[in-house]
Design brief:
The protein is mostly helical and about 425 residues long. The chain folds into two domains: about 15-205, Up-down Bundle (Transcription Elongation Factor S-II, Chain A), CATH 1.20.930; about 230-415, no CATH class. Helix content is about 55%, strand content about 5%. The chain contains 20 helices and three strands. The chain has helices spanning about 15-35, 50-65, 70-85, 90-105, 115-125, 130-135, 155-160, 175-195, 205-220, 235, 240-255, 260-270, 275-285, 300-315, 330-335, 345-350, 350-355, 365-375, 380-390, 405-415, and strands spanning about 145-150, 165, 170-175. A three-stranded antiparallel β-sheet has the order 1-3-2. A hairpin with a 2-residue loop joins strand 2 (about 165) and strand 3 (about 170-175). The longest helix is centred in the N-terminal third of the chain and has 20 residues, at about 70-85. The radius of gyration is 26 Å and the shape is elongated.
Length: about 425
């Protein structure tokens, strides 16, 4: 596969993995768009299956979203990423890149005009001497090698008088080939976004669920009014799902959480809008307090400040392997053994007495339906039933428990918050 993305990979992926792939790619593109140096991300390794799937799935999301700002962000970020990757290619990698594209183009029944020009360029770049020249010794205004293409496929170069024109044929010098590759990539991406229809996918709740989450994630980063501050967590907890509300209440009561539950809760706060500096302030305030009651955590802020700072920054992708962690879904929480922990899914693990403080305001008819769903092991559906009963105006959920997450619960429940 090539990072030019001529064709999508074929196969099947579970929806939760697809969600992880596109969220990681979106975060990566935000980094690229902001001009920051790239960090390692296993889901955006160039030429990998995840890289291909993430690109084409986000293309679908951009088409379905019909949001000009988001579309422009995606175009600019993908283009900048392509430029970075292209500039980093060695002569050997350039030849490999060209050969992969030529193999893909050969499978086309009807080759588009811009792809025909790409084919001509790749036929030259696959040659050893040419690739070495372009990637090492080629300088500005170098004309050692040239390709001939229809002038319509390189109009920006024609407009800037950077090519020679003869009878409608443009001769592009080797000093412009990388620039021309970027133009062809942009043209191919625009063609895909403008001339592809996915109307039938609008009836697929899985795709629309992914689209809703992407809208939320993109808005969270761009809209600074959605930043969650440490001092506002208590009032915001009114919209937390019971599993995270339980962790919040336990933390406020004992001022400590076990390692795994602190990790889950930290990622939840991060994904609903808490920046790293606010996260440090939040945990500093709690772990400076003397612990109450029984707990499995022996840390204090004074003794372990360096560990806490590193751990928090690590979760935000600022330390270590620079991986940007995301919060877990309901299925993961429900599958974890919480016998010796204060966490877990309340609808699965808690008895009625322990559930009561978390489900305040729940009417008897709703509670009866929740218990019925619990008896059928439909814990996520029970959680969604509770959410809809408590936030009647916030039913912007697709009513599918498929890959539901605590973050999705919060995003749905908090839509009517008035700042």
């Amino acid at each position: 596969m090539s990072f030019f993305y001529l064709t999508p990979v074929k196969g099947e992926l579970p929806i939760h993995l697809l969600e992880i792939i596109i969220n990681n790619r979106l975060e990566h593109l935000k980094t690229v768009f902001g001009g920051a140096p790239e960090t390692y991300n296993e889901y955006v390794i160039e030429g990998s299956v995840y890289d291909n799937v993430g690109h084409f799935t986000l293309c679908i999301m951009v088409i379905l979203c019909v949001n000009r700002e988001f579309s422009q962000f995606f175009m600019k970020a993908e283009l900048e990423q392509f430029k970075r990757r292209l500039a980093a290619l060695s002569a050997y990698e350039m030849r490999s890149f060209s050969k992969k594209l030529l193999r893909t183009i050969k499978k086309y029944e009807n080759v588009p005009t811009h792809v025909q020009s790409l084919e001509v360029l790749c036929q030259h770049l696959m040659l050893k001497e040419v690739a070495q020249h372009v990637c090492s010794t080629c300088v500005n205004n170098c004309t050692v090698h040239k390709i001939s293409v229809n002038f319509k496929s390189c109009l920006p170069l024609v407009a800037r008088r950077q090519v020679e024109l003869r009878n409608g044929i443009a001769e592009i010098p080797c000093s412009r080939w990388k620039q021309y590759l970027v133009m062809l990539f942009s043209q191919n991406l625009k063609n895909r976004l403008n001339n592809t229809g996915f109307e039938t996918l609008k009836s697929d709740p899985r795709i629309m669920g992914l689209l809703a989450e992407i809208r939320n994630n993109y808005t969270l980063v761009e809209d600074k009014t959605n930043v969650l501050k440490s001092k506002d967590v208590d009032k915001t907890s009114l919209y937390f799902p019971p599993c995270m509300l339980n962790l919040h209440q336990s933390l406020r009561k004992k001022h400590r959480l076990s390692h795994s539950q602190r990790f889950y809760y930290s990622l939840f706060l991060k994904d609903i809008g808490m920046p790293v500096e606010e996260a440090i302030e939040f945990w500093r305030a709690e772990y400076r307090l003397h612990p109450n009651g029984s707990h499995s955590c022996c840390h204090t802020w004074e003794k372990d400040e360096k560990k806490f700072l590193y751990g928090i920054r690590h979760m935000y992708g600022l330390e270590g392997c620079r991986k940007n962690y995301t919060s877990v879904n309901c299925q993961r929480i429900q599958s974890t053994d919480n016998a010796c922990s204060e966490g877990g899914c309340p609808f699965k693990s808690f008895d009625s007495s322990k559930m009561a403080p978390l489900l305040q305001g729940c009417t008897e008819p709703v509670m009866s339906k929740i218990n019925e769903l619990k008896s059928k092991n439909m814990y996520t559906s029970a959680c969604m039933m509770y959410m809809q009963s408590c936030h009647v105006e916030s039913t912007g959920c697709d009513n599918s428990s498929f890959n539901f997450t605590p973050v999705k619960y919060y995003m749905t429940a908090s839509k009517n918050i008035v700042n």
